[in-house]
Write a structure and sequence with these properties.
alpha/beta, 6-stranded parallel sheet, 2-enoyl-CoA Hydratase, Chain A, domain 1
Length: 433
């Protein structure tokens, strides 16, 4: 059989495969021929010198005493080091003192990055010449900020609170609950306190409007945006992608204007219309390549696959899933007396974490396998064992070909969707309109 189809396993790295002859492909999100794009540095400079909805960036720098540059961590594909190179050089050329600039890694409740990982993320020369801090959501030096219409204040990173020019660098990508990641999420949850993040995420996680690709009426997104406005994110730099996972445009400006433009572009570039659900979806979790982030690769397939259908998920994660994450499946099953979905929903309706001793992103990731539609999933991954896949509620295959052979028996004449980069797809479904 001719191997006409492929999934991404890395940037510009594909794994090809062939389909059973009787299968009909209704959607294959193929590469488009992109015109050559400038370098990340060139796109960054173009964006910050032509900002949307705000004064020229040089004027903002000229009026500042302290600058905080907030960046995301390695769980996101943002080319942080390259954007920082251009941005910090521009700030230095404007005559702003280097010692008054702090780079803040917006960890939210993610794990602290190692020294080597941090150096790769921001660049060795930035790490050696600038003050670089990793946000601690449990820190005792966080600064309280009152949020309108909220009972309690949010506590934020001291370096960000003390800056009069707050800049964020992020990627605008589909997010299973927030609609889109990046933008306001750099502030919330990026540099907020654990309790505020916990209350927000647990409250809005199961709202039916908290879905990928939706911002209007999405309480998860709207509250992130409210907090970001309250904190005062002055300048937002947003990286935008094509289905290959390549940055093809950078948009900068005010929080609202830059995010609105980025979302419009993202929807146009990554949105695909579905008139009906398919029998089988074949997808890669790319660009989500860090441990349990692989579950984000199921968001788009879940939306377009029949509940009687199946998903073949290739997860090119670069390191094993945390052992504690695997153990937590048994913990939840035991605590819930094997009624895990009801147990989790009960906690979420009360705004409580069901694993209170774990980080919020850990709780969020754990909710997906229990609350997602019960669609059959076959997992192919170099860093996940058969036993681990089964604990997480999935079947396991050693290869795409083995998974397809199993599905061919169950679905001899399947209608198929193929998402080479499942984390970069926004399904536009007519049955929800």
């Amino acid at each position: 059989m001719k191997k006409d189809y492929y999934l991404y396993i890395g940037r510009n790295e594909k794994q090809f495969f062939a389909l059973p002859q009787a299968w009909f492909v209704s959607h294959f999100v193929e590469d488009e021929q992109e015109a050559p794009v400038p370098s990340i540095g060139e796109m960054t400079l173009d964006a910050i010198t032509q900002p949307l909805g705000t004064a020229p960036f040089r004027d903002l720098v000229g009026g500042a005493n302290r600058i905080a540059v907030v960046v995301d961590d390695a769980t996101r594909p943002t080319p942080v080091a390259e954007v920082l190179d251009a941005l910090l050089a521009y700030i230095a050329d404007a005559g702003f003192p280097r010692e008054n600039v702090t780079v803040v890694v917006a960890l939210g409740t993610h794990e602290v990055m190692s020294a080597d990982a941090l150096a790769r993320r921001v660049g060795e020369h930035v790490l050696s010449r600038y003050k670089v801090v990793q946000h601690n959501a449990w820190g005792d030096d966080l600064v309280p900020v009152h949020v309108p219409n909220h009972e309690r204040s949010v506590k934020i990173n001291r370096e960000v609170a003390g800056a009069d020019l707050k800049v964020a660098i992020s990627s605008i990508l589909p997010h299973p609950m927030a609609g889109y990641g990046g933008g306001p999420k750099s502030m919330m949850p990026g540099i907020c306190d654990y309790e505020f993040i916990r209350d927000h995420h647990m409250k809005h996680l199961i709202n039916p409007r908290s879905v990928a690709g939706a911002t209007k009426g999405n309480p998860f997104h709207e509250n992130c945006m409210l907090v970001a406005r309250t904190i005062g994110l002055n300048f937002s730099i947003n990286c935008l992608y094509n289905p290959k996972g390549q940055v093809i445009r950078i948009v900068a400006g005010s929080l609202d204007a830059a995010f609105a433009e980025a979302v419009q572009f993202c929807l146009k570039k990554l949105g695909y219309r579905f008139e009906e659900k398919v029998d089988v979806t074949i997808t890669s979790s790319y660009p989500h390549t860090h441990g349990h982030q692989l579950f984000k690769g199921l968001s788009a397939p879940d939306a377009v696959t029949k509940e009687t259908g199946a998903i073949l998920l290739l997860a090119p994660i670069v390191a094993p899933i945390n052992a504690e994450f695997i153990r937590s499946f048994e913990v939840i099953k035991e605590r819930s007396c094997n009624n895990s979905a009801a147990y989790i929903r009960e906690h979420l309706l009360k705004g409580k974490a069901y694993l209170p001793d774990k980080s919020i992103d850990f709780n969020m990731a754990m909710s997906t396998p229990f609350l997602r539609p019960q669609i059959r999933v076959i997992l192919v991954s170099p860093h996940v064992s058969r036993q681990q896949a089964e604990i997480m509620g999935m079947e396991y295959a050693d290869s795409i070909e083995q998974g397809l052979e199993r599905l061919k028996t169950a679905y001899p004449q399947a209608k198929v969707a193929i998402f080479p980069s499942g984390g970069l797809i926004i399904p536009i479904v007519t049955w929800q309109q």
